[in-house]
UniProtKB/TrEMBL annotation:
Entry-linked SMART domains: LMWPc (SM00226)
Pfam families registered for this protein in UniProt: LMWPc
Protein name per UniProt: Protein tyrosine phosphatase
Gene3D superfamilies xref list: 3.40.50.2300
Length: 187
């Protein structure tokens, strides 16, 4: 079994046309950031793991002051309906993933615009993108919440299917980062 350190790597080169290279080309580390780490980021982590666990190590995290104690039931139900397994892990704050000894991110994808100014400086200057999605955990009607959770999973899956099919080794860093950022505008 691989340790976290073996699955780490970084993207080297400048933002002006250098090729992306990795210390370990086997897995790219992706952090998904939301407010509570209970619904949107959990859906994204589980979906990316489901789509391409061999090439990507996905982690979800949230604001340490708003972190949920458990995964939202709507996320559990949406993933179960899509036959995507959910790893049972404690909720992580972004402090956990930005500290010494944590996996070094290649990509940080923020799912909640309100978290941007509060996030830590991520070690290694990873690529970043904002994929702002509504905070559906606040929906009080159970039927509307279930529908919104499935729709959010669908949107994330479409974007992540494109991400896993991008040529990660041959594209230059600036073009790759623009592609990942542009995915935010997909319905």
């Amino acid at each position: 079994m691989k340790t976290m350190a073996q699955g780490q790597g970084s993207i080297g080169g400048s933002a002006t046309g250098a090729r992306m290279t990795r210390v370990n080309p086997q897995r790219f580390v992706v952090f998904f950031v939301s407010q509570r780490c209970s619904l949107r980021s959990v859906l994204a982590e589980a979906c990316l793991t489901h789509l391409c666990e061999k090439r990507f190590a996905a982690y979800s995290c949230g604001n340490p002051h708003r972190l949920a104690h458990e995964v939202h039931p709507a996320a559990v139900n949406a993933l179960a309906g899509a036959n995507i397994s959910l790893r049972s892990q404690p909720r992580r704050s972004w402090n956990d993933l930005s500290s010494l000894g944590a996996p070094k991110a290649d990509f940080v994808i923020t799912l909640d615009e309100d978290t941007l100014p509060r996030q830590p400086r991520w070690p290694g200057q990873p690529n970043s993108a904002l994929w702002a999605l509504p905070d559906i955990a606040e929906i009080s009607d159970p039927e509307a919440l279930a529908h919104a959770s499935i729709q959010t999973l669908y949107v994330l899956r479409r974007r992540l299917e494109l991400l896993v099919n991008l040529s990660l080794r041959s594209a230059d860093r600036a073009a790759f980062q623009m592609d990942v950022r542009d995915m935010a505008f997909m319905p």
